[in-house]
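User:
Care to share a sequence and structure tokens?

Assistant:
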Amino acid sequence: MDFGSVDSWGAALYFWVIPLVIGDAIFPPIPSEMVVITGGALSADGRANVFLVLVLAAVASWLGDMVVFHLFRRRLSHVLDRWKWGRRVHSGIHAALAKAGRSSTYGTIIGARFIPGGRLATSAASGIANVSVRGFGLCAGLGAVLWACWLVGLGYFTGSTTKLPFWASSLIGVAVGLVIGAVVGIIVTRRRGDRSPVEDEPLPDAG
């Protein structure tokens, strides 16, 4: 990739979407939202295919959710504790679950991905609660499509309306997405008062 050529960013982005979005399912600090929004901005600039970005983002989101779901459904989360980085991730999962509570309804599976950490917490909680594989897979798939449409659309809209360079449009889209996600997160977490489904499990030592 030639970082000095803007035209090369569109092609390179296709290779980054899947690993980053899947990784974000386990480790939320990974900036997958920014990559997807950038894909939308690049599409508005004619440097990426908006439909391909949508498909890649949705498929990667669904795959990541299914990985986390099965990891906790089969009680294999202890595998993470073999490595220091895994213990940190595992501790972060417990923290996210503590905030999310026990909610694992199908509506939550679809909608929680729009708030910070909600995708990880809901997928893990659904696995622990033994939600049906088919039910979770369908809801995760629908949620993944909506999530991809929202982020790609956000990037495309800002790119089309501002007429700024794609990186500036991406930053604006990320800022708008963070604000909306934070507001939704505050509303949702205030309504949840249930105990965490892993409250009785010992936290891994992240040290």
